[in-house]
């Protein structure tokens, strides 16, 4: 692993982002096959791990965390130190849980970011853009690998279905 400088972290994340643009990340491929070395998951199954990874990586890379962090970085009332501390508070718990679920690289990148010495908010903002692009791409792979076919076991009910079910209750 490279030293923990802005440039080294950015280059390492960019290299990994380039790799996962084409190939399934090995950690996600293993997880999608049910290979969970630490046996995360309840009752010796890994579906719950897939659900948590799907939800948490989505939040960390797409619709919840990135907009809040990028707005904070753009706000003049937040100093570089404020931003670093808030990013640590927001990202590290989720990254550590993803580490438990098997996404070790994501966690390592997160911890490198929060321990890096930045010279400006602009550097931190630039690095966060690269990080969020990487996490977003992980989410795209997770979305692709998720076993959506299981949803067939949970069909939506029609009005006629509900009436039929109601008749069972009325007749009991």
Q: How does the major sheet shape up?
A: none
- Spatial gap, N to C terminus: 67 Å
With helices defined by DSSP (H or I, 4 residues minimum), what is the helix count?
Answer: 8
Percentage of β-strand residues: under 5%
Structural class: mainly alpha
Overall average residue pLDDT = 94
What is the gyration radius calculated from CA atoms? 20 Å
**β-strand number:** 0
Could you give the order of the helices and strands?
Answer: HHHHHHHH
- Return residue spans where pLDDT drops below 50 for at least 5 consecutive residues: none
Give the number of domains: 1
Give the overall form.
elongated
In helices, the fraction of residues equals over 70%
How would you characterize this protein structure?
The chain is mostly helical. It is 70% helix and 0% strand. The chain is built from 8 helices and no strands. Helix 5 (80-100) packs antiparallel against helix 6 and helix 6 (104-115) runs antiparallel to helix 7.
